[in-house]
Design brief:
With about 500 residues, the chain is α/β, with parallel strands linked by helices. It has helices spanning about 10-15, 15-20, 25-40, 55-65, 80-85, 110-120, 145-150, 155-160, 175-180, 195-200, 200-205, 240-245, 260-270, 285-300, 315-335, 340-345, 350-355, 360-365, 365-385, 395-400, 415-420, 425-430, 440-455; strands at about 70, 95, 125-130, 135-140, 150-155, 170-175, 185-190, 210, 215-220, 225-230, 250-255, 280, 335-340, 460-465, 470. A five-stranded parallel sheet has the order 4-7-10-1-11. Strands 2-3 form a two-stranded antiparallel ribbon. The relative contact order is 0.09.
């Protein structure tokens, strides 16, 4: 920072003066820097997955058009993350008049204090510098936000200390919008903002006129405005008033991951999997896929409220909880390797049910039951993809011949493998998942249980709390002449 100009005169003689910063708006700055990034082939929004061909091109178009824009989407669609990353399109540093509350442009000051200061000190006016991160201001819209919070108010203490009349511009206490001057101002959940506050944004967006306590204060603010909203909020908690919508240049719709692969990439990136632990953690791919499929199935389930959506935070939180349950089991068993099993997904219900908003039919059934059904369906879907064409009739036959198996969660992996090895053909089928006999017991136990859960999901075998895995109900016939035999149907003429 030492080589940067510290006075207005030095600033005029530097490269910043040559670039005519006085004539360059924030939107022009964003546009120019975006063009440079596009020409270099830079990643504009690193870490944002699944929007490459849908949302990001529309954001690029909005910035190139110098539009204020709004991101519309359900919860957990990276809206806030994207708008915060817009700071990467700003200059690394920006000069402003030192001490100015609204970071006034040294070449074109707009507040009374800075105009008077430049008129008095001229080229000796002291200059300070803004980092790009300090040029971003974000506000969560809530019904209790006031005009004073957003625009500003008259400050009687300022008036008394400075000896000014209340109508003097020097008595203004600036709100969030003026303090975001020469930067990006973001409002999250715009419909929650009271209608009269939205009205206060009109002239800021179009003409730059601000009225504070009835006194006209001309502040041609230089701001890029971005908003986020849930599309259902138009008719639910609040609405975006029509004149404000009309002044928003681009309306961009976000979405959940379109493919399971995209979802897996997001969950892997955001979940806390690489954690410090006294034991080694290894997560099989099929466990990751089951957790991800769970979210996709929930989004399609008619018992889950589509208007609320199923956030991408569901698979992220669920996977973290699944790993923690496996870690807890391994620590209690004094094992050196923790591998999640399907039972750990059921144990992660607390991180699933709270993220599902249910319709009336779902409420009647209960969140836990809905989540269990979704897990079972997800297991079945992943099992089909892994074992399509694999003959498992030998395993099913073992149960049909009277075999049963109840797995105890507290038992160590070696003993679990011994129990599972009693089922004819089961351990051999784990080879379809790339496992051999030399693999650790924890991995083999997880894979074998996945096969049994997959057969249960496809109703080839049954499972209950008392007996564990048993023969499928539709396969078992009551003994001839026995008590459970169904009586012949009556014929009616």
């Amino acid at each position: 920072m030492s080589e940067l100009p510290s006075t207005l005169g030095a600033l005029k003689d530097s490269k910043f003066g040559e670039r005519r910063l006085g004539e360059r708006t924030v939107k022009s700055e964003l546009r120019e820097n975006l063009i440079c990034k596009l020409q270099r082939g830079d990643d504009l929004f690193p870490g944002v997955v699944g929007f490459e061909d849908t949302v990001i091109p529309q954001i690029v178009n909005a910035v190139l058009s110098r539009h204020n824009f709004i991101l519309l989407g359900l919860r957990g669609q990276a809206k806030t993350r994207i708008i915060r990353m817009l700071t990467g399109l700003l200059d690394e540093r920006l000069p402003y008049i030192a001490g100015c509350e609204i970071r006034d442009n040294p070449f074109q000051p707009i507040c009374r204090r800075c105009r008077d200061l430049v008129a008095e000190q001229g080229d000796k006016t002291h200059i300070a510098w803004l980092d790009r991160d300090r040029r971003y201001v974000e506000k969560l819209a809530t019904p209790d936000v006031t005009i004073a919070d957003m625009i500003g108010d008259i400050d009687p203490i300022k008036a008394a200390r400075g000896g000014h009349e209340l109508s003097n511009e020097m008595t203004v206490h600036y709100g969030l919008l003026p303090r975001a001057n020469r930067g990006i101002f973001a409002i999250n959940e715009l419909p929650d903002l009271a209608g009269k506050i939205q009205v206060g944004l009109f002239n800021i967006m179009q003409e730059g006129d601000v009225q504070i306590k009835g006194y006209p204060v001309r502040l041609p603010l230089d701001i890029m405005l971005v908003f986020t909203a849930n599309p259902e909020d138009y008719t639910a908690r609040g609405k975006i008033i029509t004149p404000l919508k009309d002044r928003i240049g681009s309306e961009i719709r976000t979405h959940y991951p379109l493919t399971v692969e995209q979802g897996l990439s997001i969950t892997k990136q955001e979940s806390w999997v690489e954690r410090e632990s006294p034991i080694r953690l290894e997560v099989p791919q099929y466990i990751r896929e089951i957790v991800e499929q769970l979210a996709f199935l929930a989004r399609d389930d008619k018992r889950v409220d589509k208007r609320s959506g199923v956030s991408q935070r569901l698979p992220i939180s669920a996977l973290e909880n699944v790993i923690s349950n496996a870690e807890r089991r391994a620590l209690k068993s004094r094992e050196d390797l923790a591998v999640p099993r399907v039972l750990d997904i059921y144990a992660a219900l607390p991180s699933i049910t709270g993220k599902l908003e249910l319709e009336y039919e779902g409420e009647l059934k209960g969140g836990d039951n809905i989540a269990r059904e979704l897990i079972r369906a997800a297991v079945g879907k992943v099992y089909t993809g892994s074992f399509e064409g694999v003959n498992v009739s030998q395993i099913v036959q073992w149960f049909e011949m009277g075999g049963s198996l109840k797995l105890d969660e507290s038992v160590d992996s070696a003993n679990i493998v011994k129990q599972l090895s009693k089922i004819q053909g089961l351990m051999e089928k784990t080879g379809a998942l790339g496992l051999g006999a030399s693999e650790p017991d924890a991995l083999r136990a997880s894979a074998a249980e996945f096969i049994l859960e997959g057969l249960y999901a496809h109703r080839r075998i049954s499972r209950n709390e008392e007996m564990g895995f048993t023969a499928g109900e539709r396969k078992r016939e009551p003994p001839e002449g026995g008590e459970g035999r169904r009586p012949p149907r009556k014929q009616f003429n």
